[in-house]
Specification:
single chain; 163 residues; alpha+beta; two-stranded parallel ribbon; two-stranded antiparallel ribbon; 8 strands
Length: 163
């Protein structure tokens, strides 16, 4: 019974969100966002991007192991993780600038939550909350394809211009 109610609510939310999907023209006229979803210039809210791949869990970084990349501070749990990131930041940085993968798939942006994450085809994706994660999980390949189309259309500006 409870599963049936959850399923109905989830399906209703998916239909509502699909109806709210933005057209390419609407996306192009959105207010610009920073290239990376940052809080106080901190990428991934201080979580270690490498740890998602090596430990398969969100792990808070240590300010002692910080690195500036793409205008944001990235924190890591160790010097090894910091050096791993430095060698290939694009491999470890979250897709869509760390914004919610589901929101980007429907032509919008929302902050990414480092605790709502998935690695698909060796790429890190974040979602805004458990509902967005559930909706994104319903069709990961389709949502990734839609996000890959929408992300370049979303207006962006460098982090240093976001004051």
């Amino acid at each position: 019974m409870l599963y049936s109610i959850f399923r109905t609510v989830t399906l209703s939310a998916a239909l509502l969100c699909a109806a709210c999907a933005a057209s390419p023209d609407e996306i192009a006229h959105m207010r610009a966002v920073t290239e990376l979803d940052v809080k106080g210039n901190l990428a991934l809210q201080g979580y270690d991007a490498v740890a998602y791949f090596t430990q398969q869990t969100p792990t808070r970084g240590d300010p002692a192991f910080s690195y500036t990349w793409n205008g944001a501070q990235w924190q890591f749990t160790s010097e090894d993780h910091l050096n791993t990131f430095k060698r290939d930041p694009m491999r470890y940085a979250p897709q869509f600038g760390g914004y919610c993968a589901y929101a980007v798939s429907i032509g919008k942006t929302a902050d990414g939550d480092p605790k709502q994450w998935a690695i698909v085809d060796d790429k890190l994706y974040l979602n805004n909350n458990a509902l967005a994660m559930t909706l994104w999980n319903r069709d990961r390949p389709g949502n990734i394809r839609a996000g890959d189309v929408n992300w370049p259309l979303i207006p962006k500006h460098p982090i240093k211009d976001s004051k």
